[in-house]
Specification:
5-stranded mixed β-sheet; alpha/beta; Dna Ligase, domain 1; 33% helix; 433 residues; Nucleotidyltransferase, domain 5
Length: 433
């Protein structure tokens, strides 16, 4: 039974707008500060392609059904909802603002002045700001200043990180919510939010790459010293892998998806050492999803629904070819941004396509980094659901909301962050980008 509409300060809703699936959660913060999920829903998405809306009516209907299911499970109706999406080609830029000091001694008023100046920075009209973080002060030529109040200088500068997406994409996402009588709140990017839910504090502190291979998009987000320092997205994902299988094998999309999920695996490139250690090529004895029974070979045959037979090698080669393209293009973006070494040696995999058997070993070999699957941490209320991976980004957004003021949308927020060693990141980014 649905209770009357109510609004609790500690209760909020999050919606993850994916190309292949929509995920909604309604969460509350307990008295001890723990995140508790009181309602959730995961539904097939519709009206998106490559993360972008291509059918507003179909997408709006799918969003409405998903939110309604989460509301029914929570027993409340929500008015406001926060968004996670991969639309609009997210872009991070670092901007430096300056003010001259009338009084050589810096006051809190001076800090407010520079924050106001940062908020007035002109952004390309085709872009919409979804996150703005201040993370370093500079006094004259002295950088990495944690708290300049009371210090003396002639000029005060500050670096701010600004995350933007395409203005049209942001407007269309908000329009879908308004059509469903929902007020848009904070908005953030998918891989970034998956990092908040799946990374340990140590992984965020020492540096990690979150690799989110979803249905219609593939994204990276870099964490260093507890903060997001870079993100980017490609409009390519698991759907393209499925379409490749369907096209090459002349089968339906449904059967291609089944083959990808249940029969597909990624083979690590063969080296002299692996050849000497394993006479049967390629197939890992332990997959990311399950332990394979028996000694399966790349030369095994698979029987299709039309009774035709193909070698497992053909299926796996199709999958591998598209994944190699995704990894290559994402690494090109990291190299162009001088970020390929910034986040250390850890890669955490999230997204539906990241569950393919053998993918961790494959990415470790291609990128020369340690890769593992990511799972949401420290969340209660989901004990009855065995597979919570589809909720990773939504849970991460809920944790992000907990750590940020909720009385104002993220588009108009400027948050002063703790500085410490994070000031070094600002200098590194400024010098290398």
């Amino acid at each position: 039974m649905v209770r009357p509409k109510q609004k609790l300060n500690s209760t909020f809703a999050v919606l993850d707008l994916g190309t292949s699936k929509l995920a909604a959660i309604i969460a509350e913060t307990s008295k001890t500060g723990e995140l508790n999920i009181i309602g959730y829903a995961v539904q097939e998405s519709s009206g998106l392609r490559g993360g972008e809306i291509n059918n507003l009516e179909a997408f709006s209907t799918a969003v409405g059904h998903t939110v309604q299911m989460a509301e029914e499970k929570a027993g409340i109706t929500v008015r406001d909802i926060h968004l996670v999406c991969n639309a609009g080609r997210p872009r991070i830029q670092i901007v430096r603002s300056h003010i001259d000091l009338s009084d050589a001694k810096i006051s809190k008023r001076d800090l407010r002045r520079i924050i106001v100046k940062q908020n007035d920075i002109k952004i390309d009209e085709s872009r919409s700001v979804i996150q703005r973080e201040q993370f370093q002060y500079i006094l004259d030529n002295q950088s990495q200043v944690q708290n300049p109040v009371g210090m003396f200088a002639q000029k005060l500068s500050s670096d701010a990180l600004i995350l933007t997406i395409g203005a049209s994409a942001a407007a269309n996402m908000k329009q879908v919510l308004l059509q469903n009588h929902l007020n848009p709140g904070h908005m953030h990017q998918g891989a970034c939010m998956s990092g908040f839910s799946c990374l340990s504090e140590e992984e965020k502190e020492l540096g990690s790459i979150v690799l989110d291979i979803g249905g219609g998009t593939s994204s990276v987000a870099l964490f260093m010293e507890g903060k997001i320092i870079y993100t980017d997205t490609l409009p390519i994902g698991g759907i393209q892998v499925t379409r490749d299988i369907a096209t090459i094998l002349s089968i339906s999309i449904q059967e291609a998806e089944r083959l990808k999920v249940f029969e597909g695996a990624i083979f690590t490139p063969i080296t002299a050492q692996t050849k000497s250690n394993n006479l049967i090529s390629g197939m890992p004895s332990k997959g990311d999803n399950f332990i394979l029974s028996g000694s399966l070979s790349d030369l095994d045959t698979i029987i299709l629904s039309n009774s035709e037979q193909i070698e497992r090698h053909l299926l796996n080669s199709i999958i591998k070819t598209r994944l190699e393209e995704i990894l290559e293009k994402l690494m090109e973006k990291l190299v162009q941004a001088n970020m390929q070494h910034a986040a250390g040696n850890r890669v955490i995999l999230v997204g539906g396509t990241a569950k393919l058997t053998g993918i961790s070993e494959f990415i470790s070999t291609i990128w020369k980094k340690n890769a593992r699957l990511g799972f949401p941490k420290h969340v209660s209320g989901l004990q009855e659901r065995e597979d919570i991976d589809p909720l990773s980004a939504a849970i991460g957004m809920a944790k992000f909301i907990q750590a940020n003021p909720q009385n104002e949308p993220i588009q108009r927020q400027t948050k002063t962050l703790p500085f410490g060693r994070f000031g070094k990141i600002g200098n590194w980014i400024i010098e290398n980008i």
